[in-house]
Amino acid sequence: MAQYKLNDPDFLRDPTSVLAQMREEGPLVRTKLPIIGQCWATTTDAATREVLKDEALFARNPANAGGKDISRYYWFLPRFMRPLTRNILSLDGAEHKRIRAAVDHSFSRAAIDALRPEITQVADQYLDQLDPSKPVDITQDYARMLPLDVISALLGIKPELRQKLSRAIAPISKPTGIIALFTAMPGLYRTQKLLRAEIETIRHTQRNGLLSTLIHDASNDLSDDEILSLAFVLFIAGHETTLHLISDAVFAISDGAKFNEPTSLAIEEFMRFFSPVMMTKPLFVRETHERFGQTLQQGDKVIAQLIGANHDPDRFENAAEIQTDRRPNAHIGFGFGPHVCLGMHLARTEAQIALERLFNRFPDLERTPKNAPPVYSERYGFRGMKTLKVNLKP
Questions:
Q1: What Gene3D superfamilies would the database entry show (predicted)?
Q2: Is this model's pTM higher than 0.90 or not?
């Protein structure tokens, strides 16, 4: 069985040769990943779409594939994690639709467009705090902070709590294996404790924001644990994708990629090329069957490789190159099928505004040291900058 190390710095800098090697094995290859263990991984656009769309034979919850419920599947996790594992990302069918329906309206294109002035204000606020006289870390000082503030505002989390949550989740973005995962547990515990306390406060007060709507709207039937897990996922996932998309894009633009009108085209291409979320969480095979020339056994785990789909030369001409005017650009960087990213309109809007405001103010921004190679985080499943030092050069 091939051991593809998909968080290796060489792969993250240029995944072309490894992805080509995987495709040569077939549209579905056997591999092994930290925490997840042995699994299948899709390698092409067609295979990835097929797996993500086929709810009849692929489940998010192992209980629907002859196994334990997701809350007990990862038995080694502490008890406090169990409500968090049963979240919108790990549920199937009607259960998934019911929870998603409670928040869909808040992430619609119209709802996100209404947030543009507020997102712009947040971006300008953080740009005002950057010191042009010395190198700054765009990843930590700008790309991370902007989406954290925006998702906090959307949820209705009070400002004084945002810094505590930011510090609590910092270790969560680092796990690369089982040992590292356990080092993140204190941060996970603090995060869920802070969110639970905030939910309880909102329950006894009136406040703007999605959390207040979920708690006080009698038309939804979400339990306390479902509201907690939903808030947790939205808070974590609500900033992680955008953080990596922004920092990856800044690197690309500083490396010569064009960022001209319409900037929305460039955002789509950065999302395709970098695929900040490189793969989905594991899906579980519901029934033993033949697929792509392989026998998939009930309970087998399958990873849908979004980066493999987005670099498939059968889907994209010159797939290994950044072309910011690429059109059409039918990438699946935000996933595909029933679990397509809930916050994709928010991520696109945040990235567009963050980059436009940054480069309007600092058009001659350059990396420091000049032409320095990218420094990627080695967290499995993500392709984003660990740090990105730049000179702003106003």
A1: Cytochrome P450
A2: yes
- What would the pLDDT profile of 240-256 be if each residue is shown by its tens digit? 899 999 999 999 999 99
Residue range 2-23, pLDDT digits in tens: 678 888 899 999 999 999 999 9
| CA dihedral (351, 354, 356, 358) positive or negative | negative
pLDDT for 130: 95
The whole-angstrom distance between residue 286's C-alpha and the CA centroid of its chain comes to 25
Can you say how many angstroms the Cα of residue 184 is from the centroid of all Cα atoms in its chain? 18
Other beta carbons less than 10 A from residue 283's beta carbon: 27
**pLDDT per position as a tens digit, 134-162:** 999 999 999 999 999 999 999 998 888 88
* Total residues found in the chain within this entry: 394
Instruction: List the end-to-end C-alpha distance of the chain, in Å, as a whole number.
Output: 52
- Note the helical H segments in the chain: 9-13, 16-25, 45-53, 70-73, 82-85, 93-101, 109-113, 116-129, 138, 145-155, 159-169, 178-183, 185-203, 210-216, 224-254, 263-274, 306-310, 344-361
Neighbours of 11 (CB within 10 A): 19
Decide the pairing of beta strands 389-391 and 366-367.
antiparallel
Asked whether residue 294 is domain-assigned, the answer is yes
Q: In the chain, how many domains are there?
A: 1
User: Which sign, positive or negative, has the C-alpha torsion 108, 110, 115, 116?
Assistant: positive
Residue 1 lies inside a defined structural domain of this protein: no
Instruction: Please count the CA atoms within 13 angstroms of the CA of 109 that sit on its side-chain side.
Output: 0
385: left (phi over 0), alpha (psi -120 to 50) or beta: beta
Is the residue at 240 inside a domain?
yes
Look at residue 35 in the predicted model and tell me its pLDDT: 79
Count of Cβ atoms closer than 10 Å to residue 49 Cβ: 18
> Which of the 8 DSSP states describes residue 142?
I
What is the CATH number for 77? Answer: 1.10.630.10
Residue type, 3: Q
Q: Which residues touch 273 (CB under 8 Å, ≥6 apart)? A: 252, 310, 311, 322
In this structure, is residue 3 part of a structural domain? no
Range of the domain at 250: 9-391
Buried b (16+ CB within 10 A) or exposed e, 263-281: bebbbbbbbbbbbbbbbbe
> Do the beta carbons of residue 102 and residue 220 sit within 8 Å?
yes
